[in-house]
Design a protein that fits this description.
191 residues, alpha/beta, four-stranded mixed beta sheet
């Protein structure tokens, strides 16, 4: 919300977490407690809708896109960030991949599935980029070592020693389109 406000937008937020909503309101933002899929926007229209790490929690992403279509202005944009199930981290860590996050994550996405979804909605993809960071390694290795009960290794991995290496690998994977986080920008399809 603060990024949008800094850029000059009038911003609104909605979240299912009472703590997040309280924090946003305490910082002067209009933020509402509720579920996006069920929330009544009362004919409000928006220029930009940002859903960072939200879509993977929805049981029916296509229904969510219909809702987005009803509240997005004609020339508006959607920016969606989701974990990438086709990332190198997924292939390396599988059930220990931190972004798997089952059962909270219900749906998983790749660039291909996002393109398929886009074809079933009134939106077209303008841009896909990969925005991974070191958590794909520190988080996943931490889960792996926690499961193996190797606490010493878990602490070692989370130490700052490996951060430059993981940072370089993360940036490289983003460039190669194998990072574990996808950011997609969509706009309404021209009729």
């Amino acid at each position: 919300l603060s990024e949008g406000q800094t850029l000059g937008y009038e911003v609104y937020g909605i979240d299912i977490s009472e703590d997040v909503v309280k924090s946003a309101k305490a910082n002067g933002f209009d933020c509402y407690l509720g579920n996006f899929e069920k929330y009544d926007f009362q004919n409000q229209k928006f220029d930009i809708i940002i859903m960072r790490h939200v879509l993977e929690h929805f049981t029916d992403p296509l229904t969510s896109f219909r809702k987005i279509n009803s509240i997005l202005n004609k020339d508006g944009r959607i920016i969606i960030t989701v974990p990438n199930i086709r990332s190198l981290s997924w292939f390396l860590f599988r059930r220990y991949w931190y972004a798997l996050d089952a059962p909270r994550h219900i749906c998983w996405f790749s660039p291909r599935t996002l393109r398929k979804i886009s074809k079933k909605t009134p939106f077209e993809i303008e841009k896909i980029r990969f925005v991974s960071f070191i958590l794909q390694f520190t988080g996943s290795l931490g889960l792996y070592f926690e499961h193996k009960k190797k606490r010493t290794m878990q602490k070692y991995i989370k130490s700052y020693i490996f951060f430059p290496i993981f940072y370089f690998i993360s940036i490289s994977l983003n460039f190669l389109h194998f990072g574990d986080v996808i950011e997609v920008t969509m706009k309404k399809r021209e009729k």
